[in-house]
Hints:
- This protein is 46% helix and 14% strand.
- The protein has 390 residues and is of the alpha/beta class.
- The chain folds into 2 domains: 2-179 and 354-371, Glycogen Phosphorylase B (Rossmann fold, 3-Layer(aba) Sandwich); 182-351, 3-Layer(aba) Sandwich (Rossmann fold).
- The strands form 2 sheets. The protein has a 6-stranded parallel beta sheet, with helices on both faces. It has a 6-stranded parallel beta sheet with strand order 9-8-7-10-11-12, sandwiched between helices.
- Helix 3 (86-94) links the parallel strand 3 and strand 4.
- Helix 1 (16-30) packs across helix 14 (355-371), helix 2 (50-72) runs parallel beside helix 3 (86-94) and helix 2 (50-72) packs parallel to helix 5.
- It is globular, with a radius of gyration of 21 Å.
Amino acid sequence: MKFLFVANTHPDPAQGASGCDLNMIAALRALGHEVDAVWTGGWPRRIAHHNLHQLLELPRWFRRVVLEKCAAKRYDVVEVNQPHAWLAAKAFREARLPGVFVNRSHGWESRSWEAVEKFEHDTRPLGKRLAATILRRFLARHNRLVTRYSDGIVVETDGDRDAVLSEGGCRNVLVLPPGIAGDFLAPLPPPDPARFRRVIHAASFSTHKAPEVVAAAMRRLARETDFELTWVAQESAHPAIRALLGVEADRVCLSGWVPTDGLRGLLDRHGFFLQPSYFEGFSLAFVQAMARGGIVLGSEIDCMLQTIRHGESGFLFAPGASDPLADTIIRLAAEPARCLAVSRAARAVAEGMTWQKAALRFEEFSRMLAASQSPQPNACQTSSRRADRS
């Protein structure tokens, strides 16, 4: 089959969304498929404001790229990221181009906003907050439109699937969690009980990652234990992180982004991985930590509920809670045998999440769409696929 991937990200394997796309492309090519990809870069962006860019400029860029590529070459599957691809999906349908159009979401945006707003303390002036609210309403329209015009939708969690179906458009929805790159499934180093006195958080510094919860847990651990604490995030965020950590900032090792080998090494050294996010599409970070035998302390949100058995292969808590995370780490550190058991269970879960497996499921979904393609808008049959947790 011939695939076209279009994404408004840079092809950076260290970043969540683009890392997922790069690995999926490589896995499809390994299966013998032909894959072309178009990434952001080199094209003129005239609107600096992020939300206005997504509202006014990005849909037209997606449309132009898809029509230009499909005019030059026939594709069996065109996959475009984000709901802002709605205009490309509409143009694809109206032009009656061969193949099928698939929209890929790494986190259904309207759900993300709803989850974060419960905890976010927006200190911006009232005018800016009102403007953001109005813009989000217009952007939410993109979600509805992309489900209307796409032949299929790919999401990463059951909750996102339900949100897509509630939009009332296309009913072909594939729940496809990301795989884990082979580097992270390499053999583990010999068991080292000392790693369970080290705690790490590695994620972009943004509201939905709950950095204030991470900071509260680390402040507590810094005051009450001699654990090694590490926080990996973009260097531009380090001043804000230090402010959150307060007087305990000197007890936490701050690191900028590291290459894959460096991250794997850090995960091998640390026994506990903090990820108390308010919302995730499907974070690669916590499953990478599981692949390296790390014990994840996360939130009761879709992607973690689908992956982690509380108390068996990790630990899950209500979003916004910090003391339960710290309490659990302190208690477990005194039980090395249990730590090793949870570590082994986490690794076993991760071993079932490969990119080859994900690519095979996407291939099957694409063939189903092609076989059931209908000239009538939205005349597709329901095919909601749950994540394979084996």
